[in-house]
Amino acid sequence: MKPKSHRNFCDRNPLFWTISKHKNIVARRLKNLLGKDRFAKTKQTDKLPEIISSYTSVLIKTGKGIDPVTQQNKAVNIRIAAAKISGIIIKPGETFSFWRIVGTTTKRKGYKEGRILKNNKLITGTGGGLCNLANTINNMVLHSPLTITEFHKHTDALACDIDHRVPMANGTSVSFNYIDYRFKNTTNQNVQLILWCDDTNLYGELRSTKSFDYTYALIEEGHHFERQGDTYYRISKIYRTTTLRATGEITAKELIWDNRSEVMFDPALIPAEMIW
């Protein structure tokens, strides 16, 4: 732990942190009011015909050191928030804002105590686990021509995931309402987010009226782990490629994350050959 004199002001006392949080919430509301963004708010039950991208993630993780109660609560929280978002239409020129659609995550609305990441430590909080939902949306948007306008990252090493590693499987951070996830529809047609859950998985689809000229993929290079003292880090470079649909030609490859994420799971799960 840092000496008290070197710690951030709002880390020294929970009251300071609460005051800082509410200040940031008010500041974001004022910024929304005075800003020029047109936020998406139209929902429809009919799905747009074309699937641009899709993504599936596990709702409830199991394993050593994983609390089953917070995992079950996370699933409840995701179901509530996903239902608020599913069907939303983002028209050309509009911006999708995670928190403007989801709203506050209170017990009165049915949200439970789930796992959240605060100051790089895993704790519990009402509505915890919604980063999983935001990350699902982010993954689909990265596989589309839409433009991400606000993205906050946290560790990409919440679970080992060696056997089924997916680039950007984690890493999207949200916290009401000032740590938001936003993207803008910079295309010339409507797009739509569809989200639903079954007993074990969260599913997402990003849909449009017709297909786009390009497709997108994520590629991870140099994936390994490093140790510094008692702390381990996941290291990799994650790129996004752009491919012309008609010819299959890759027209662009851009680095989207030079990944150095602190490991939050039991480092004993890391295979020895993966530690460089």
Describe this structure in words.
The chain is an alpha+beta fold and 276 residues long. The chain has a domain at 38-210. Helix content is 21%, strand content 34%. It has helices spanning 14-34, 68-85, 98-102, 130-142; strands spanning 42-43, 50-58, 88-90, 95-97, 113-118, 121-126, 147-150, 182-184, 191-197, 201-208, 214-228, 231-244, 250-262. The strands form four sheets. Strands 1-3-9-10-2 form a five-stranded antiparallel sheet. A hairpin with a 2-residue loop joins strand 11 and strand 12. The longest helix has 21 residues, at 14-34. The protein is globular. The two termini are 26 Å apart. 29% of the residues are buried. The model is unreliable at 1-5 (pLDDT under 50).
Q: Note the gap between the termini.
A: 26 Å
Give start-end ranges of low-pLDDT stretches. 1-5
Helical percentage: 10-25%
Mean pLDDT: 90
Instruction: Decide which structural class fits the backbone.
Output: alpha+beta
Descriptive tags:
21% helix; alpha+beta; 13 strands; 5-stranded antiparallel β-sheet; disordered N terminus; 276 residues; globular; 3-stranded antiparallel β-sheet; 4 helices
Which secondary structure elements does this structure contain, and how are they paired or packed?
Layout: H1 14-34, E1 42-43, E2 50-58, H2 68-85, E3 88-90, E4 95-97, H3 98-102, E5 113-118, E6 121-126, H4 130-142, E7 147-150, E8 182-184, E9 191-197, E10 201-208, E11 214-228, E12 231-244, E13 250-262
Antiparallel strand pairs: 1-3, 2-10, 3-9, 4-8, 5-6, 7-8, 9-10, 11-12, 12-13
